[in-house]
Write a structure and sequence with these properties.
Blueprint lengths: L3 E4 L2 E4 L2 E2 L4 H10 L1 H5 L2 E9 L2 E9 L4 E8 L6 H14 L1 H12 L14 E6 L4 H6 L7 E9 L3 E7 L23 H6 L5 H5 L7 H12 L4 E6 L2 E6 L2 E8 L4 E9 L22 E4 L3 E8 L5 H14 L2
Parallel strand pairs: 6-7, 7-8
Antiparallel strand pairs: 1-2, 3-8, 4-5, 5-6, 8-9, 10-11, 11-12, 12-13, 13-15, 14-15
Length: 317
């Protein structure tokens, strides 16, 4: 990652700097975890079952815990450590819930969380090729992020994206020594959603509509596909502007209007003033959210639908 200053039309390289310590990186991320990852910070240096987790966070979108680990070694095994952390979490759910309730002044139970969407984020100034290859599976519940520091307190973050279509579950079905690196029980309890499985859940009838819509939306600047267990979503920067939910008779598109996780959605203001002359979107509302949704069965409807979604996209920073 190279950064430049534009001075009178000429690009001047911004020199790289170093972090004072691993703790320095941790402090930066914990103070900005909402802005960087869209997560809610819960606890730092959380101890459980003789292990200590650098940062414990909560993902409101997936209703799951996220562990963040900061690395300074290129030789350590991320596979072993990641699955060890997930195993400890799943075997000590009550401890995580107790920590969450204490920090958020809530009274939730273990079953109120989705443990199957738990994940581990590793952050390091660099990863070895071995580490990158070790987690190169389509559904492994780990994320690798490289962090760089530049002069002027400029910080760069870059996610290492997997391009593999191989499932980590396949390792549990062979007898090679590599299967020892994977805890079979954890693999089948926790795994990252795979696009093809999420979208084709109810068959392939609406796949053409889905891929056509996805292609159009990902052509817009700063957009990214985001997969959750039962649906897909498209983000602009860190904010979801449409959920794509596969159903038996259609693809349902849900466009968020207002959200308030405290349960007082009517008090929330929105800069988004939605206009739908054909009135194909309907409103759904509870105390936490107000959304607009429409059910798509015909690819010819996408032209108008995309124009509607563009309104939401344009309202986001």
């Amino acid at each position: 990652m190279e950064l430049y200053n534009n001075k009178k039309g000429k690009l001047i390289p911004i020199s790289k700097d170093s972090f004072a310590s691993e703790k320095h990186i941790q402090s930066i991320i914990e103070n900005s975890v909402k802005e960087v990852f869209g997560l809610t910070f819960i606890s730092s240096e959380f101890s459980c079952d003789s292990f200590r987790f650098d940062s414990v966070c909560y993902d409101e979108e997936t209703n799951a815990f996220v562990i963040i680990e900061y690395k300074n070694s290129k030789s350590s095994s991320l596979i072993d450590q990641g699955f060890s952390y997930l195993s400890i979490m799943l075997n000590n759910k009550a401890e995580f819930v107790l920590e969450y309730n204490g920090k958020k002044s809530s009274n939730l139970k273990k079953n109120d969380f989705d443990w199957s969407q738990s994940r581990v984020i590793f952050i390091s100034t660099s990863f070895s090729q071995y580490q990158k290859t070790a987690v190169n599976f389509s559904d492994i519940p780990f994320e690798l992020w490289e962090i760089k520091k530049f002069s002027g307190e400029t910080i760069g973050l870059n996610q290492i994206i997997t391009n593999s279509k191989q499932s980590v579950k396949g390792l549990t079905n062979n007898k090679s020594s590599s299967s020892k690196n994977v805890n079979q029980k954890i693999v089948y309890q926790v795994s990252k959603p795979v696009e093809s499985e999420v979208i084709s859940k109810y068959g392939k009838k609406f796949l053409d509509i889905y891929y056509n819509l996805k292609s159009r939306l990902l052509d817009w600047e700063e957009t990214k596909l985001h997969l959750i267990k039962k649906y897909a979503a498209i983000k602009k920067n860190k904010i979801i502007f449409v959920y794509i939910i596969p159903m038996k008779k259609c693809l349902r598109l849900v466009m968020p209007y207002k959200t308030d996780y405290k349960g007082d959605v009517d008090s929330k203001k929105s800069k988004f003033n939605f206009k739908d002359p054909k009135k194909i979107f309907k409103e759904e509302k509870d105390k936490y959210r107000i959304n607009y949704f429409t059910d798509v069965t015909n690819i010819s409807d996408l032209e108008y639908i995309v124009l509607c979604l563009k309104q939401k996209y344009d309202s986001l920073p």
